[in-house]
Design a protein that fits this description.
This protein is mainly α. It has a domain at 2-90: Orthogonal Bundle (Non-ribosomal Peptide Synthetase Peptidyl Carrier Protein, Chain A), CATH 1.10.1200. Helix content is 65%, strand content 7%. It has helices spanning 2-13, 15-50, 69-109, and strands at residues 59-60, 66-67, 111-113, 120-122. It has a two-stranded antiparallel sheet. Strand 3 (111-113) and strand 4 (120-122) form a beta hairpin. Helix 2 packs across helix 3. It is elongated, with a radius of gyration of 28 Å.
Length: 137
């Protein structure tokens, strides 16, 4: 039994389990933000132009059996809007990430290694800022 708990402890302590836990927590918070954006901002604006609320649409089969297809249509519509919002946000994040990587690549293109201490320095430097050696062009 002790080995089981030790194995479980090592499983929980692994990095990818912790990364997954953080991802799930952030994903839950992000879901609340996107849900609020859709339900509290986008849907009312669309309601002004469309003037329809699908939640009330039902189909009565018998006295006690009701199919609320309007709620399904609303859920489907909310999903499409949420997917669009997440797509736009991720596209923006990817664009920002690509710009940062490009800037880092540009910095590394303007760098060379000091022949004495092997530190990365600017190509125009005449003296190494790390070891203060005089550099030849």
């Amino acid at each position: 039994m002790k080995s089981f708990f030790n194995e479980f402890k090592s499983f929980i302590a692994r990095g990818n389990v912790m990364d997954m836990a953080v991802g799930i927590i952030i994903g839950g918070a992000f879901t609340n933000i996107v849900g609020s954006l859709v339900n509290d901002i986008i849907n009312p604006i669309i309601g002004i132009f469309g003037g329809m609320n699908f939640d009330k649409y039902q189909l009565k089969l018998m006295d006690d059996v009701v199919i609320s297809y309007g709620k399904f249509l609303t859920a489907l519509f909310n999903f499409v809007i949420m997917a669009l919002v997440v797509f736009i946000m991720m596209k923006s994040v990817n664009k920002l990430t690509a710009a940062v990587k490009k800037e880092e690549q540009t910095k590394s293109d303007n760098a060379r290694k000091c022949p004495y201490c092997m530190s990365e320095i600017d190509t125009n430097a005449t003296r190494c800022p790390h070891c203060t050696s005089i550099l030849e062009k």
